[in-house]
Amino acid sequence: MIVFFMFFPDYPGRTQDLHARITEAAEAVLSNRYTLPDTHLKVRVVRTGGNIGESGPLELFWPDSHEIPKALLRVNIHSQTGQSNRHKGWALLYIAHFDSVLVANRSFKNSEEVFESDLSTIWAETTRFHGNPLSPDAIRQLAKQGEIYSNRYISEKKILKENDLRNAYDIDTGQQVIMHYNRNGISLELACKSRNRGFNGDIIKLFSPDTQHTYKARITAPQTATWVETLK
């Protein structure tokens, strides 16, 4: 259980807003516990319970977790007056996450080539986003490796997930592949057809018309693989 102490001095003639005090205390916890920039997180108080009081220092009892909280989070609150430190209530917080994400400027068919002009970077809330959004850094890495293609149908204005785009496959389904076979002193090169698609390092199935056998092979380069197993 993490305890964070936040002091709010009293100002004569002014009562501090309860939600503002709790929000400031929560933002201080986030800033001190996690390395994510403050601009990526925003705290909103959903509701409170108990008799927290209108002024004075607050202690927020934060769940002991290494992960940055996302969406709803309940914290207990103590307040201190003089020598007294007592449980006064609780607060239900909403921790909103924001980040730079990529959106499609137009719709894409499956396996359609995607260009830089087809994408835009926006600042968006990702709190309830299903999966991981594709970041600008990730798209730059894809671009360094070659042409970029859609991995499925993508609608216009959609925030992209990290697996929505890909580079060209090193081997595609139905493509001719040279399989290197090295076993028990026998070294062969077999012309095969791919039953799967994949990238360098993936294991796929290949069929040889000459031997009438199907093999498992590991992709080592475009249109090239190394034998792993002969299938019955």
Question: Which SSEs are present, and which pair or pack?
Answer:
Blueprint: E1 2-6, H1 18-33, E2 41-50, E3 58-62, E4 71-81, E5 84-104, E6 113-114, E7 119-125, H2 136-145, E8 148-150, E9 165-167, E10 176-183, E11 186-194, E12 203-208, E13 213-221, E14 224-231
Parallel strand pairs: 10-14
Antiparallel strand pairs: 1-3, 2-5, 3-4, 4-5, 5-7, 6-8, 8-9, 10-11, 11-12, 12-13, 13-14
Can you tell me about this structure?
The chain has 232 residues and is mostly beta strands. It contains two helices and 14 strands. The protein has helices at 18-33, 136-145; strands spanning 2-6, 41-50, 58-62, 71-81, 84-104, 113-114, 119-125, 148-150, 165-167, 176-183, 186-194, 203-208, 213-221, 224-231.
**Poorly predicted regions:** 3-16
Taking the sheet with the most strands, its summary is: 6 strands, antiparallel
Number of strands: 14
Distance between the ends: 57 Å
Residue share in β-strands: over 45%
- The radius of gyration computed from the alpha-carbon positions, rounded to a whole number of angstroms, is 28 Å
